[in-house]
Write a structure and sequence with these properties.
It comes from Dyella mobilis. This protein has 454 residues and is an alpha/beta fold. Helix content is 38%, strand content 20%. The protein has helices at residues 2-25, 36-56, 65-82, 89-104, 110-114, 147-158, 208-213, 219-230, 245-252, 296-303, 320-329, 344-357, 364-374, 443-449; strands spanning 118-124, 129-133, 136-140, 171-175, 181-185, 195-199, 235-239, 262-266, 278-282, 310-313, 336-340, 377-383, 389-401, 404-412, 414-417, 423-426. β2 and β3 form a beta hairpin.
Length: 454
């Protein structure tokens, strides 16, 4: 207790010094809650409140939000009065409101986590926070008092899921209880201090109609995607980071008939398929010595014994590519996955490379034949400069010729400028009907949808 009081006294001294410095420098041109002074006062008030909680043996975790709010207001007032901190009533209310977020939530991140427009939260040290809204990065006024404060909030995410972040384990990648994903890395691996990336996911995933309304594609592509999924075509979604691959995969799953059993396999569970019969599998990292690890490859192999109608691999990035190709080639048509690549051709090259790393024993020509027979369509998705995600092309994998995988592009995205300088986007079809016999029953359906299909 004596150490806690000494630390509190030291914190208050720092608070008073920061207020004097800020006042003498005339730094009142920014909102109070964005200043170091605010965070110093908040840190001191937080320490003051916790000391009282410990002295009085209070269990604030069992209190209602209203009770905690009133208690925070009382303690903030007592702290300001006892140490004669020169802030006004409005500033004191902001301190007590922030204190409630510290006690019941995730402090400076609480408002960002509740904002439905925020897709990503990127933290580069305690006072440098960026957010992504609609695919566009922007600086956020949110910040932390110091790196110790930032680490305290990050560990609040990790404790309930049994993960650690310390000198012996300076990197962590975790799935949050609400379905989001957190990645954090600290010194000495990070030179700029603790760096945290939080990926948020919608509680209600986008439907194909939602993506159509957002102009990710047009009606002709909507019809082709529906026919491809219902016709049990094997689909690979290719794109860069934050291009919308997972959102599109979630949407495509809504076309899967409800009579089918779907098994998803992921490194970190992110998919939220709008389907009544989904079994979700997630890989597991090993212990300190690597024991107990379960890879995606192990899970894909095991999923074949679980009577799947379709297998959805969240992302192909390693040796699991071999098992996925075998599944697609051995009766599990209609399977889907995503891959990081800049174009459909690059996606095929990357699959070849991953198969080589996985120890594929055959020749290059046999590997390409296996890839060509497994994959029916490659959907390339791109994030434009304005943040919008669009399908930039849909390519059908036809087969092999002269030991090269042959493809044909069905649709591609283009932006044209008219005589008045107004930009218009469209997805012209190239006039080819898909070669795969899986879509033969949908020929009339696709013809009626237009888009240049014969």
């Amino acid at each position: 207790m004596e150490n806690a009081l000494n630390r509190a006294n030291h914190d208050v001294t720092d608070v008073l010094r920061s207020i004097d410095a800020a006042t003498s420098a005339g730094r009142r041109d920014v909102p109070f809650e964005q200043t170091q002074q605010f965070h110093d006062v908040l840190s001191g008030a937080h320490e003051f409140l916790l000391n009282h909680v410990e002295e009085q043996h209070l269990d604030i975790t069992s209190w209602s939000l209203d009770t905690i709010t009133k208690y925070a207001e009382i303690e903030t007032g007592a702290y300001v009065q006892e140490w004669r901190i020169p802030i006004n009533e409005a500033e004191m209310r902001k301190i007590s409101a922030a204190l409630v977020k510290e006690l019941t939530g995730f402090g400076p991140l609480e408002d960002l986590l509740r904002d439905p427009e925020v897709e990503d939260i990127l933290i580069n040290g305690y006072k440098d926070v960026y957010v992504s809204r609609c695919g566009v990065l922007e600086h956020s006024p949110a910040r932390f008092a110091d790196n110790r404060h930032l680490l305290r909030i990050v560990r609040r995410f990790l404790v309930p899921i049994g993960r650690r972040l310390d000198e012996s384990n300076p990197m962590v990648d975790a799935r949050l209880p609400d379905g989001g994903r957190l990645n954090a890395i600290i010194e000495p691996l990070s030179v700029t201090g603790p760096c945290v990336s939080i990926r948020k996911f919608r509680k209600e995933p986008f439907t194909p109609d939602d993506l159509l309304a957002r102009k990710m594609f047009d009606k002709s592509i909507h019809a082709l995607l529906r026919a491809a999924v219902m016709g049990r075509c094997n689909i690979l979604i290719s794109g860069g980071t934050s291009s919308g691959k997972t959102s599109l995969l979630n949407a495509l799953a809504s076309f899967i008939p409800h009579t089918e059993r779907v098994i998803t396999v992921e490194d970190t569970a992110e998919l939220s398929l709008n389907h009544p019969h989904v079994v979700r599998l997630e890989s597991r990292m090993g212990g300190f010595e690597g024991d107990g690890a379960v890879s995606i490859r192990d899970l894909v192999r095991n999923s074949l014994r679980m009577r799947p109608d379709r297998i959805v691999v969240g992302e192909v990035r390693s040796s699991e590519v071999l098992e996925m190709l075998q599944a697609m080639n051995t009766g599990h048509d209609g399977s889907m996955s995503t891959i990081h690549a800049n174009s459909p051709r690059d996606a095929l090259y990357r699959m070849e490379m991953l198969c080589g790393f996985a120890g594929f024993q055959g020749t290059e020509s046999s590997l390409r034949r296996q890839i060509a027979s497994a994959i029916d369509f490659i959907i390339q998705i791109t994030r434009l400069n304005n943040g919008r995600r669009v399908i930039s092309s849909i390519t059908e994998v036809i087969g092999t010729s002269d030991e090269v995988i042959t493809t044909q592009e069905m649709f591609h995205h283009e932006i044209a400028t008219d005589l008045e300088g107004i930009e218009h986007e469209r997805w012209p079809g190239l006039g080819f009907h898909p070669h795969t016999p899986k879509l033969e029953p949908y020929r009339q359906f696709l013809r009626d949808a237009g888009g240049g299909l014969p």
